[in-house]
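About this split. The held-out portion is used to measure sequence recovery: a designer receives only the structure tokens and must propose an amino acid at every position. Recovery is the fraction of positions where the proposal matches the reference. Here is one held-out target exactly as it appears in the evaluation file.
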């Protein structure tokens, strides 16, 4: 986790989150003890700790008295507060703004080269119990259940972004979505 701190500083993640909240029309100071910025920074901490669920943040950290410094408070918000507050302000507009601002920050920091990009797709076969759409597997030469991973990479092969679609949607149909 601590190896991630320099990149968070270079990309200015709290500033990106604040800008995205403003663009989505969400007030950063809404009268609650934990602002939307505090909630999103807590979720970022969970992401850096490789938590897959909200509950794991506090399971991994134990008592959360010491980690409030991450968001500039005495304590991190509880799981109930995170769930309740996130439902009120998590919107598609916020997600779009976060993705766009993060991509701009990565490009500005020179982490990826945007002069030449490469597009690639891989079909990933799904063997689970859920019924999902089929796509063509070139390995098995059959129509199988699965999803496509579409990638955009820079000149040196570093990923810029990826997009997941169901197995019926090929790269040609996702190009407009990828290039937005």
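Reference sequence for scoring:
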């Amino acid at each position: 986790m601590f190896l991630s701190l320099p990149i968070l500083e270079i990309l200015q993640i709290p500033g990106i989150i604040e800008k995205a909240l403003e663009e989505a029309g969400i007030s950063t100071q809404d009268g609650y003890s934990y602002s939307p910025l505090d909630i999103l920074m807590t979720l970022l901490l969970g992401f850096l700790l490789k938590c897959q669920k909200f509950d794991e943040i506090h399971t991994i950290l134990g008592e959360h008295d010491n980690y409030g410094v991450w968001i500039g408070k005495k304590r991190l918000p509880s799981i109930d507060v995170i769930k309740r507050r996130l439902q009120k302000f998590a919107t598609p507009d916020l997600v779009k703004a976060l993705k766009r601002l993060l991509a701009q920050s990565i490009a500005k920091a020179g982490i990826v080269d945007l002069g030449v990009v490469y597009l690639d797709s891989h079909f990933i076969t799904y063997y689970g119990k859920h019924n999902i759409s089929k796509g063509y597997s070139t390995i098995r030469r059959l129509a199988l259940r699965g999803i496509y991973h579409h990638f955009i990479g820079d000149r040196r092969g570093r990923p810029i972004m990826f997009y997941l679609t169901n197995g019926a949607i090929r790269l040609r149909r996702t190009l407009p979505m990828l290039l937005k």
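Annotator remark: The chain has a mean pLDDT of 82.
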